[in-house]
Structures are given as structure tokens and as C-alpha cells.
Design goal:
- It holds the Pfam family adh_short.
- The protein has 339 residues and is of the alpha/beta class.
- The radius of gyration is 21 Å and the shape is globular.
């Protein structure tokens, strides 16, 4: 075989491999590292058993689904939110459908904006279970209003809850993990902590702040390799986050359900979260297309990303003013369906 033919064959193989990877990316619902971990990485069923896991915002949405999936892994669960009755409902379902007993689940009401209560709440968990292996910072709130129409109180509320509350609880749990030289701090951020989009000025600000804080914290903890700091950045996911989003006034929310058929199933999002936790991934992006592609553009081609964001942003604002979900019309045909 001549060298020329060999080079042509190598070039053809490289081209085929590139096309295959491109097709896989177009069907992906997570960043490439996460997809590799799902295929070849460690399983949550192997890595997360017998751990004590504290989940905030556990009364609905991602936090609720996370509690259900964790309950099947043989963990000890601490479920926190403001609504005690909803937490009790989640606990009952965990006991009915999971592998846990009554003693394995602690209901711990918590208001993240009441930062003076966080140290006492941490002590309650340690008294109950003796350790905290994983803290999942999931509680938070979104926004649906133009910046110019939004009260300053809304921005304050979003920073208090999404950023300062999360930081405060983390700093209460962190000394325990440092003492043990191990633990995982998992923060449910958002793709809007990486990119930006209209109608979310305050929400984006709080999520960008979270990403900056935890990236810095990870670097500060480099001398503790057993402590893992992970940012989970989902795109649109089926939940009540839009319904409960603040609008122009801090006392007002969207308050109505919108069509969510175009969004990722909560169960799929949580499964990918568990995979990232099992594989100690530092940051993961979880989203269907085109949101995943847009995030890659923001990361590697920001000039193009700004152009595309301005184009799609006009439609997002139009959808909102027409009473639709802001993201409902974004390339539905691209959506990958998962059970």
C-alpha cells in the first residue's frame, strides 16, 4: 500500500469520525464530557449508596424528582424547603416507591433567605445522621420581566435567595466537609449562569454570581481533593419555575401554567445530574438542542452568540407578551425525546 493511499484512508476515517461525532452532538442533551460519563463513566447506583444527601428546594421540580431517584439508591435524605406539607408529600412517595425507611428521611423546613437559621439547620442534620456527604443547592426562583419594568426589590429578592442564601448554607456545611476532608457541594445553577437572555436580568445576575463564587471556591479547596464542587447548568426543564417566577413586582408571579411539552423531562435532567455527581464532574450543561448548541457558541464563539441571542431574544419577548412560555417556539423539531 502506498503512502498516498494510506493518507487518503486516514483522512477518510477522520472525516467519518467527525460526521459521526457531529450527529451525536445534534442528538445530545448534555455537554460532551457528561455524555461520555453517561456512556463509560461510573454509575450512580455504585457511587452514591450509603451517603447522606441534603437537598434544598425539595418540594417541587428538580428537587422533588431528585428525592425520588435518590430514594431508590439507598441513601439517607434530608429534604428542605419552606412548604412543610409538600415536603411530607414528597417523603411519603419516597417511602412508597423507594428503598428507604422512615428513619432514612429527615424533613427539615428551611427558608434560604433566613440566613441566621442556616447554622442551626446544619447542626440538626449532623445530629441526626452524623455527617453530610453531599449538599445539593437546588432552591431558587426565576424571573420573567423586562429589566426596565422590574422593581429593584425583585433584583434584591433574587440575589438574597438564589445567591446569598445558597452561599450562606454552603459556608455552614463546608467546615464539616473540610474536617472530614471529603464531600460534594452540588449547585443547581442554569444555562443562564453561562449565557444571557431577555426577561431574566435579575435571574441571570444571580446565577452568574453563583457560578463565579463556586468556581473560586473550587480553586480555594484545591488542597482538599476529596471535596468536589460541581455546577449543574440545566436549560429549560419541566417544572413550576416559570409559574413561580417573579415579574415586575416582588409580590407578583407569573401564576399560570404554560405549555412545557418542548422542555426536557425532569426525570431525564435528574438522571444526568446523578451521573455528574457519581463522576465528580466540575460543571455540566444539561439541555436539548438548540439550547446546548447556543451554550457552546457562547463559550467558544461569543460574537456569533450575541448575534443569535439578539435574534431569538425578540421572539422570546414576543412570546412572553402573548402569554406563552418564552421559549416555546425555539426549533421544536430539534427536541430529543427521552423516556
Amino acid at each position: 500500500m502506498s503512502w498516498e493511499l494510506l493518507l487518503w484512508l486516514l483522512a477518510l476515517c477522520a472525516l467519518v469520525a467527525l460526521v459521526v461525532q457531529l450527529l451525536r452532538f445534534l442528538r445530545a442533551d448534555g455537554d460532551l464530557t457528561l455524555m461520555w460519563a453517561e456512556w463509560q463513566g461510573r454509575r450512580p447506583e455504585w457511587e452514591l449508596t450509603d451517603m447522606v444527601i441534603w437537598v434544598t428546594g425539595a418540594s417541587s421540580g428538580i428537587g422533588e424528582e431528585l428525592a425520588y431517584q435518590l430514594s431508590k439508591l439507598g441513601v439517607s435524605l434530608v429534604l428542605s424547603a419552606r412548604r412543610v406539607q409538600e415536603l411530607e408529600r414528597v417523603k411519603r412517595r419516597c417511602l412508597e416507591n423507594g428503598n428507604l425507611k422512615e428513619k432514612d428521611i429527615l424533613i427539615l423546613p428551611l427558608d434560604l433567605t433566613d440566613r441566621s437559621s442556616h447554622e442551626a439547620a446544619t447542626k440538626v442534620v449532623l445530629q441526626e445522621f452524623g455527617k453530610i456527604d453531599i449538599l445539593v443547592n437546588n432552591a431558587g426562583r426565576s424571573q420573567r420581566s423586562l429589566g426596565v419594568d422590574t422593581s429593584l426589590d425583585v433584583f434584591k429578592e433574587l440575589i438574597e435567595l438564589n445567591y446569598l442564601g445558597t452561599v450562606s448554607l454552603t459556608l455552614c456545611v463546608l467546615p464539616h466537609m473540610i474536617e472530614r476532608k471529603q464531600g460534594k457541594i452540588v449547585t443547581v445553577n442554569s444555562l443562564l449562569g453561562i449565557i444571557s437572555a431577555p426577561l431574566s436580568t435579575g435571574y441571570c445576575a444571580s446565577k452568574h454570581a453563583l457560578r463565579g463564587f463556586f468556581n473560586c471556591l473550587r480553586a480555594e479547596l484545591a488542597t482538599y481533593p476529596g471535596i468536589v464542587v460541581s455546577n449543574i447548568c440545566p436549560g429549560p426543564v419541566q417544572s413550576n419555575i416559570v409559574k413561580n417566577s417573579l415579574i415586575g413586582d416582588v409580590q407578583k408571579t407569573v401564576g399560570v401554567d404554560t405549555d412545557q411539552s418542548h422542555k426536557m423531562a425532569t426525570s431525564r435532567c435528574v438522571r444526568l445530574m446523578l451521573i455528574s455527581m457519581a463522576n465528580d464532574l466540575k460543571e455540566v450543561w444539561i439541555a436539548d438542542q438548540p439550547f446546548l448548541l447556543i451554550t457552546y457558541l457562547w463559550q467558544y464563539m461569543p460574537t456569533w452568540a450575541w448575534w443569535l441571542t439578539n435574534k431569538l431574544g425578540k421572539k422570546r419577548i414576543e412570546n412572553f407578551k402573548n402569554g406563552l412560555d418564552a421559549d416555546i417556539s425555539y426549533f421544536k423539531a430539534w427536541k430529543t425525546k427521552h423516556d
